[in-house]
Design brief:
single chain; about 350 residues; alpha+beta; Double-stranded beta-helix; seven-stranded mixed beta sheet; four-stranded antiparallel beta sheet
Length: about 350
Amino acid sequence: MQHRPLTGPFAWKGAELARDGRWSIDLGPEAARAIVDATATARAAGVSTDTVTAQAFPLTSLDGLLARVRDEIEDGCGMVRLRGFPVDRLGADAGLAWMGFTAHLGTAVAQNPAGQRLREIRDEGAGVGERYGQMRVGGEGEVFLSSRARTASTAGLRYHTDRCDIVGLLCTGRARSGGESRVASSVAVHNAMLARRPDLAALLYQDIPRSRLGEEDDVGREWYPLPIWGIRDGKFTSHYSRTYVEAAQLLPDVPRLGPAHWEALDMLAALADELAIEMTLEVGDVQLLNNHVIYHSRAAFENDPAAGLVRCLLRVWLCAPHRALPVGHEVLWREIEAGRLRGGIATATTA
């Protein structure tokens, strides 16, 4: 099959997007007040972060804003940054407010086998591999950390996508230094590789073994095959984390990737860096990304607890299935048709 470059607002380059402010929105005092009022309404009704719904979190005055956000995520550049989410005014209810707000954009799905729907992304200190998954490699006690374990450290994260249609991050604390977010259009990466090395681009349309390290499904399957790129009904989707690819290569029965595969993955990362836009999330900033058309990464960071500078992001994974996914992606998503609940980590009720 001959693959062609894709055109549209989602095929952006960082330098271009930096000059176009449509993806960055200041909430302003009226929107902040509406979020605080909706939180009070939800709290009075006895709902929690696990039970809040869009109906229990009324934001009628923000219908226009929410429609703009939804359109930009699915049919625009694929991401939105909101500034001024009233974290300071919300205090301990920031998580409830975040879950209530995002309920207007999609359905929250599980981020671990226990069904957790809201996760704090922060440094959890030593032992994250033992808690969240690791593999022993070599003979000197060296370990290979799962993707989930890496997110719970101060280490940098490579370009990747998450297991959901939309990932939403609310910043409630910033580090003393580092932690910058870099975001790139996976469509632009695809187009650039297709132009420069079509032979390598073709490999990423083929199955690549992925590990389920730390997130095994209910029958204990440790790996699965899935292309990094796919297209259905004219819409592109990419699902990628190099950590899961590398972990799969440590398993004994997994087909081995050749040098050209690794060259393609190296080029993917290099192109993402070349085409990315960088931002630092401040307290009250929101980042919403369409995982089908966006790669994101994180720089390493350093906290300063004594100064109150501790990086923390509240993460939600949302199902907002406007697009059908390519045949074969059900091995990860379980459902691939538009309008069906999909994504997240398999639990006892979804596996």
